[in-house]
Amino acid sequence: MTATAKDGGVYVTGRTYPFHQVLRQAGGEWLAEEKAWRFADPDQLAAVAAVLDTPAASGLAENQAPWRPKPGTEHRERVRATFMAAAPDVLGDEELLELLLFHAVPKRDTRPLAQALLRSFGDLHGVLAAEPARLAEVTAFDPATTERELAAVLFRLVRTVGLRAQAEGFKSRPVIDSPEELERYLETSLAQAGIEAFHALFLDAGNRLIRDECLARGTVDHTPLYPRELARRALELGAVAVILVHNHPSGDPTPSSADIATTRQVVDALAALNVTVYDHLIVGKGRITSFRNQGLL
């Protein structure tokens, strides 16, 4: 931005749009024909300069020197421009995470933080699935700010929106006709979870997804499931079939004896209601075990 003394006032021109709210609140008047903000009192511009961390207003007015962006701004603009202009796969995980962190960390270089997060959680999937308690262990966040809290909200929001968009796809076509896509969805939603969780995918007569619900959460190696509650929920939703899903935080998707026994109880409870259990899937790290394929169902 450039400030120029003219006609008894100060005119600010250049790339002003990102700061239009600050300029207006400071008393600036937007002149559309001149594409400039006019300040009748130079002291008003001094206040704006202080907020934006620019050179002093008097210096701008006298020297007509262009405003220089804050350190790192040019880099952020380059990353954004690359992302918007190129194919999605041009940027690697580090660059994508760096770009995402711009929205949680506004005033410093986010690349070291992105690198630290990837070292801690392995990949982008692991970062987005990290619980706030795990993020608290990452020392690269500035403890004097709300960076960590904002990042936790941002990661959960991105992950939730992505999962919901994936689930919407199953509402228009049969779930069991897209086993590879279903596995990707389940790996995204459960593979990185730190505790065991039991989900049920309730299906309609066309095998389309009615709802994916988490029915129980437990510890790192156990989830209490009550077959009667699952049967009641199937009736409420009008489901005619169910796919059972739970994760093993250990990463090993081998069914335990308790998994097998619980599955039999659920099958019996739902059979009384003419609701079919298509499969029980256990999600590990990089692998999913199917009870049906293992001959356990």
Indicate the mean pLDDT: 80
Low-confidence stretches: 54-71
Helix and strand element order: EEHEEHHHHHHHHHEEHEHEE
Identify the CATH class of the largest domain.
Alpha Beta
- How far from one another are the termini? 69 Å
As laid out across the biggest beta sheet, the strand order is 6-5-7-8-9
Number of E-state strands: 9
Task: Evaluate the radius of gyration.
Answer: 27 Å
Estimated structural class: alpha+beta
Percentage of residues in strands: 15-25%
Silhouette: elongated
CATH architecture descriptor name of the largest domain: 3-Layer(aba) Sandwich
**CATH homologous superfamily name of the largest domain?**
Cytidine Deaminase, domain 2
Number of domains: 3
The name CATH uses for the topology of the largest domain is Cytidine Deaminase, domain 2
State the share of residues found in helices, binned by percent. Answer: 40-55%
Q: Please outline the major beta sheet.
A: 5 strands, mixed
Number of helices: 12
Structure description:
The structure is a single chain. The chain has 297 residues and is α+β, with helices and mostly antiparallel strands. It has three domains: 2-63; 73-162; 192-290, Cytidine Deaminase, domain 2. The protein has twelve helices and nine strands. A five-stranded mixed beta sheet has the order 6-5-7-8-9, with helices on both faces. Strands 1-2-4-3 form a four-stranded antiparallel beta sheet. The radius of gyration is 27 Å and the shape is elongated. The chain starts with a strand and ends in a 7-residue tail after the last strand. The relative contact order is 0.06. Residues 54-71 have low confidence and may be disordered.
